[in-house]
Amino acid sequence: MSLRVVGPMVLLLLEYAFVLAVGPLLLSLGRRVKARSQGRTGSPLLQPYRDLWKLLGKGAIYSDTSSWLTRWAPAVSFAALLAAVPLIPWLVLPAPLGYVGDLIVLVGLLALSRFIVALAALDAGSTFGGMGSSRDMWMGALAEPVFLLVIFAFGGPAGSTQADVIAARGVALGLGYLSPPLLLAVVAYVLLLLVETGRLPVDNPATHLELTMVHEAQTLEYTGRDLALLEWGQGLKLALMLGLLAALAVPWGLATTWGLLFLLAALAVTSLKLLGGHLFVSGLETRLAKWRLFRVPDLTTLAVVLAFGSLALTYVVGGGA
Amino acid sequence: MILAEALLLGGMVLFVGGMVVAWTRPTAGGVRGSFLLGSLGCAVAAIQAVELLVTGTAPSLAIGFPGTTTGVPLLALSIQEDPLSAFFLLVVAVSGGAVMLASVGYVDRYVHERRGRLAGLCNLFLLSLVLVCTAGTVFLFLVAWEGMTLVSFLLVVHEHHEPENRQAGLRYVIMSHAAATGVIASLLLLAVGTGQAGWGGIAQGTARLSPWVRDGAFLAALGGFGTKAGMVPLHVWLPGAHPAAPSNVSALMSGVMVKMGIFGLLRVVLDLLGGGPSWWAYALLALGALSALVGVLYAIVQHDLKRLLAFHSIENIGIILMGIGAGLLFLNLGYPALAALALAAALLHTWNHALFKSLLFLGAGAAVGSTGTRDLERMGGLIRRMPGVALGFLVGSLAISALPPFNGFVSEWLLFQSFFAAFTTGSAGTEMTFSALAAVLALTSGLAAYCFVKAFGITFLARPRTPEAAKAAPAPRTLVAGMGILALFCLVLGVAPILALDLAGGPLRELTGTTLGTGVPFSVFSSLPGPGSVSLPFAPGLLALLLAGVLVVAWAFWRLRGAPQVAPGPTWDCGMDRPTPRMEYTATGYAQPLTRIFRDFYRPRDHEERRPALQPGWGDLSRIKRWAREIEDPVWRWFYLPLSQGTLHLARRTSRLQSGRIHAYLAYMFTTLVLLLLLVRVVWGGTP
User: Fold this and answer.
1) Domain check: are B191 and B310 in the same one?
2) For A132-164, what is each residue's pLDDT tens digit?
3) Closest chain A residue by Cα to residue B429
4) Which of A220, B10, B192, B345 has the fewest CB neighbours in a 10 Å radius?
5) ipTM of the assembly?
């Protein structure tokens, strides 16, 4: 095989390794920030990896009420998230397999992952599972218009819904990419990220009270490897949403030419962006209390207004140089 | 070509054969044979449609007098197919064939009485649908249209011993005939105005018509065909009629017949009139967005499985109408390539909806048939009693929720792309309009996913909620086979939508003058063709490959780590005692977050039944014995009830004219005649 085929494939594998590895780290970083702000030391940064390794070695217990759906759901949900990895430029532009799909495909894959988990949550017939499923799908439905509007707001000036095309425009424009509409779109996206990844004030990933759970309530019946996949999937989803934010809001640092040095630099820059982004989100979380469930529409409505504002503002000031 | 005519006629003869068999030998075997003949007829018709779409050979049959030689050209009857008819014929034939196959065992088990009549009417229904698609002249189209309405009415009231079904049928037949007025008015306006009876002739003459006539024809078509399609606010017949019919008929009506409204609209607005002013497009976009939202919002709060599916038909018709509206607007603005993109989304979604909605109705039919109820709250756990049906329903749910890698996602993705393409027009208003529409479409598909987790989960998962559900009989094999065909189509058109786009090329060229991906070859694994010669940023084949690849890697990893020890156990539920079916989440509870935030829209009426507190101090909650929530469609109460009461009132007033005296009636006739003559004199200036 020629270098033209092998090169992108190697790069893609590298990206997969990076995203899979960084997901759990993001989760533990968030916990660490919260612990520190509460005066605790918190668990070691590598704890999630140990947890995953332990869980992956364990067998599983399935409720005798459940069906084949329960057994397949974690793998399918994880696969949907993995399939979304090539849609985002992590290291180089254009993304090695970026032509597979655009950001609307990404929305579809995230929805598929959510749909399957929500179905499986109903499978065991537990009340908490049903509650989490209903709430998660409800929030997902409210978040979907925000996602599309944000895509339109970012993509409109670039004339494309593809993440690497939008990022490439940003890299080419340099600091001229920054503009008031971009800022509004970024704020809308951050609100969306809070809802999509189940962060405070929408959902508390560290809660132990079943009645306030949203995402966690859906995984209550899972054990062993399946639980590992679901937890890992949460980290993966966080990495995807942050990676997209990094690519759309601060695309600088992505390599535009191939070369080992460029790749290493891009790897360092992207890691910094993800960690920095998550530090910001976690910092935000420590300043917020969990909202009542029925205030979530306020948040999504605000995000819709901001995204629309970004679109409208483009005509007033132009979408960057 | 002789072959095309032979295929089309052969298909029709098979339908007639199915009718004859069912009516002369209404035994179990005869009924089965009748359904099989219908299924075969659909297969033959599908082959003919594909032949036309691929090679362009159109059958042409003149029935009776060929019109041009007689003095009444408007009465000409002929069958004349163009790519648009062939595409809709294909839509009818694929879903119709699978549904007829599924009916073979379904009817055997569930409908004992009058099943011969049911089988015969189903064949007649398909014949009328095929004729609606292939009619080449106004008159034959109207005859077939009326036949389709009447036969479907008979099918809706098939189980007429239920008063509810009779009422739904009555509502349906009245609204259909009110709508037929619009269809007739629209087509006659065009036919009389151009002096032509065939589609081709009319299309050439409409440019010369006055804007008033064109606007009139558009509005009449919108009302007439819109009612058949189930467009809000003309939708009120649909949620009643589809559940009332036997489930295989619901699959035909919701999957196929509703699409004839879309067909008629495309035929009149784009083919015959060739597009129009921008307010037509905005009207379609607004009505489409309204239908999509209202449809899905009411679907979520239903706990009657078939009613829920019926409301989703309204939603999907809304999505299709948005596509047509976008196409019309792009044509009006002078972007035929973008119009082709929007209309490709509309056409594809039409076919996709026909596939997954038939699939879902067949699954619902199996569930309803074996549990004896349509109420979601009385089902549950059916995945173990009927695994094949559950898998089919799951595929349908994924497809209708617009999730990859199924067909519903592709057509909605294309529609999003056509909305996004508004950014190339450079007009701020257009861009903002389409951004808002994209938000509406996204909310709609998100809510559809919410609804289908509920529909699938409450029906098929967890433990049976009633003894009937626990004893549900497994589904007949032909039913599972019919669902399997439809599910396979949903997957194939999701992985390789290029096949459907290729078939839609002919209709697109006919409607917009251009098509997608002109002059560039596209394969299953390449990106989708876009407007002009560019390609769109989505390669569904590759995405499916990626998904499958990741799953295979995960599976191999599983194997490498050794087979996991799997143990069964009770549902944990955070350490509660083993949960009973009464503790499972209900359909009403599942939708509660939404009914709460849209309280002002739904205006739910809650019914509570109370009893004395179980123990003193246990508080208010233990006193509620039963709790039910009722939500009704306000359109009926605030629009149709006043309308019908007003009509009755007016009729009573008018009935005073009927004095019973002959000379009074003669006077009426004379006055009417004079008035008509005056009208003719004024309108046509003395030359009729």
Assistant:
1) no
2) 999 999 999 999 999 999 999 999 989 999 999
3) A312
4) B192
5) 0.95
